[in-house]
Each structure stands twice: as structure tokens, then as C-alpha cells.
Design brief:
Blueprint lengths: L2 H20 L4 E3 L5 E3 L9 E8 L2 E7 L6 E7 L15 E4 L10 E8 L2 E8 L2 E7 L20 E8 L5 E8 L3 E7 L13 E4 L16 E9 L2 E8 L8 E7 L7 E2 L8 H4 L5 E7 L5 E7 L10 E11 L5 E12 L3
Antiparallel strand pairs: 1-2, 3-4, 4-5, 5-6, 7-8, 8-9, 10-11, 11-12, 12-13, 14-15, 15-16, 16-17, 18-19, 19-20, 20-21
Length: about 325
């Protein structure tokens, strides 16, 4: 074998090994079952991502873009081919000056309520809610104000229950990152005083693999299935390679929350990628559950974090209750 062939063989072996170790597909499957090759350009680099499906289009938001500027948005009609950023303000759906905050724009969530679109987000280590007529923005506030609550609070998730009550699940930075809930006013202007309650904090070994003083649980997503409430969250510092996703179940929005025995349900040992977590569940155009989340840039670097996606579904367990099952073989990056 000549030197050129030897080098080529080694390179191909290394690429194959990398693909197998990371378990990230370089292709996706279309509606007919045919494999579609995705772009070889680098993955989209949004942390704390969320996907909002509206009018036959998927809208992707997250933490990223220019420092302290706002939130970018990308669009897709098939979850494979992404365009953008497409926000009305040079790619941004929300920009500094039109809503609360001057720095630290993190972890947006988009939801529809009373024929309006809303973005709940973090800025200046506080939570604010802006509104828009379009997923592309501009998301604005009439009064640039934050919600009341703790001295520092981040990672909002607004959940609207079947009876119309609105709950804000979020993180309060108080002797650690701890997950709270509070009921919101009907006009979304603020939380109702005295309704806040601690839900989840790091207590189990998988939630604190480095035995740190400031323990972390964050990135909430709440789903309701057959009358039960499912509280998905991430644990460990996001820079920890063991950043992972677990969940707890309750029969009402306030808990108590029972952490499941199969946690964590997303971890580097399952998907071959470090720092997997802080994402959001959504249903695709066919009504199937997906989870969009971020992972570390590489085995050696945390940032810029990459955006990934995987399939999921509720499956009935031996006790007759539903549990969330993740399809680890479906993990793929989102490419622009």
C-alpha cells in the first residue's frame, strides 16, 4: 500500500470511529422512508433551544448570536433543511431595547395565548415576557419590565393547564439553581403573589456528579399526559460533561414531584455526546414528540454549544402509567 492510500485509509477509519462514538446520524429519514443527506456545514450553534410549530413551519430559537443582542430565529418546513437566521431585525426575533434586558439573553420559550404569540425569556438574570404577531418578531413589550419573584431567576417555561390556569416554571438562584412554580395572572403581566413553591432541586447522584457546593437543576419543560404532569429538567452545571436530562411526575401542577427510576433519560453514556440537555419537547406536523437540546462543541470544548434533536414517545409501563422513552439512535444535529 502506498503512503497516500495508507493515509486515506487511516482518515476513513477515524471518521467512522468518530461517527460511531458520537452516535450522530449524518442523514435523516423523509416521510417515504428514504435517507436524506444533510449539509456538511457545521451544525446550528444555539444553546437552550426551543422549536415552535406554527402555520406549517418550524421556528427554532435559543441562546446564541451576538453577545447581549437578543434572540435569533431559524425556520424549516421539514426539520431537516434550516434557513436563516430569519428574524425581522437582522435575523433576530427580539432585540435589545424593544423588551426588558441589556445582557444575558438566555433560554427563550414561544407559546400562543389568546390569539397572540409570546416569548418568555431570561435577561439580566430575570424573567420577562414579550409579545408579537409573528414568530419572526418583533417581540416587544409596551413597558420594559421583568416579572416579580426571586432576586435572580432564569429559564422560564409557561404552562397553560386544561382549566385555563397559567403556571410559570422557572429557576431561582438561591443556594443553587432550584426549580420553582408560581401561578400567573391571566394577562401574563406577572405572577400571583404567594403562589410560588419549590418543586425540584439536586439531591440524587446523577444530578451532582462533581459534588459541588452550588448544585444545579434547570431548563424546565412541563407536559401533561392522561391527567399526569411530567416535569423534565436538566441537572449538573452546563459545563459538566454529565449535564443530563431527567424527569419527575405529579398529579397536580404543584407536585409533590416524584423523580422516576429511569433517570437520566438523556446522558452522554446514551448518545455519545457531552453536556446533553436544556431543551424542549414539541410535536411535529404528524403529532409525534421530538426533543430539541444542546450538546458541547466537542469532547474538549464546551462552547459554542451545538443544537441537536431526537425522537421521543410516551409508552405505557408495567404499572399502567406512561413514561417518556427517548430514541437514542435518532439523534442528529440541526444544520443551516
Amino acid at each position: 500500500m502506498n503512503t497516500h492510500s495508507l493515509k486515506l485509509g487511516i482518515l476513513l477509519s477515524m471518521l467512522l470511529l468518530t461517527t460511531c462514538n458520537n452516535k450522530v446520524k449524518n442523514e435523516q429519514i423523509d416521510d417515504t422512508g428514504k435517507e436524506i443527506a444533510v449539509s456538511e456545514s457545521k451544525p446550528i450553534e444555539l444553546a437552550d433551544p426551543t422549536i415552535f410549530y406554527w402555520d406549517n413551519t418550524y421556528y427554532l430559537y435559543g441562546t446564541g448570536g451576538k453577545k447581549d443582542h437578543g434572540f435569533l430565529v431559524y425556520t424549516s418546513t421539514d426539520l431537516i433543511n434550516w434557513e436563516g437566521p430569519k428574524g425581522v431585525n437582522s435575523g433576530y426575533a427580539l432585540v435589545t431595547g424593544e423588551s426588558y434586558g441589556t445582557k444575558g439573553f438566555w433560554a427563550p420559550q414561544i407559546f400562543q395565548y389568546n390569539d397572540k404569540l409570546y416569548m418568555a425569556y431570561t435577561a439580566n438574570e430575570q424573567i420577562a415576557i414579550a409579545e408579537s404577531d409573528s414568530p419572526l418578531g418583533p417581540f416587544k413589550q409596551k413597558t420594559l419590565a421583568k416579572l416579580s419573584g426571586g432576586e435572580r431567576q432564569i429559564d422560564p417555561y409557561v404552562f397553560i393547564d386544561d382549566d385555563g390556569k397559567i403556571f410559570l416554571y422557572h429557576v431561582r438562584l438561591t443556594e443553587g439553581n432550584k426549580l420553582f412554580v408560581a401561578e400567573m395572572k391571566d394577562d401574563l403581566s406577572d405572577i400571583k403573589p404567594g403562589t410560588d413553591k419549590l418543586c425540584i432541586e439536586a439531591e440524587l447522584p446523577w444530578e451532582d456528579t462533581q459534588n459541588v457546593e452550588w448544585k444545579v437543576t434547570e431548563g424546565p419543560t412541563i407536559l401533561k399526559q392522561d391527567g399526569l404532569y411530567y416535569f423534565f429538567y436538566s441537572a449538573n452545571d452546563f459545563r459538566n460533561i454529565d449535564y443530563a436530562v431527567g424527569y419527575a411526575v405529579a398529579d397536580n401542577p404543584y407536585g409533590p414531584w416524584n423523580k422516576t427510576d429511569d433517570n437520566p433519560i438523556i446522558h452522554r453514556s446514551q448518545i455519545g455526546l457531552n453536556g446533553s440537555g436544556h431543551g424542549d419537547f414539541f410535536k411535529d406536523k404528524d403529532g409525534k414528540w421530538k426533543y430539541v437540546f444542546h450538546v458541547h462543541a466537542s469532547d474538549d470544548n464546551v462552547s459554542p454549544r451545538k443544537t441537536a434533536i431526537m425522537n421521543a414517545e410516551f409508552v405505557e409501563d408495567a404499572s399502567g402509567h406512561d413514561k417518556m422513552v427517548m430514541d437514542y439512535e435518532s439523534v442528529s444535529y440541526l444544520y443551516n
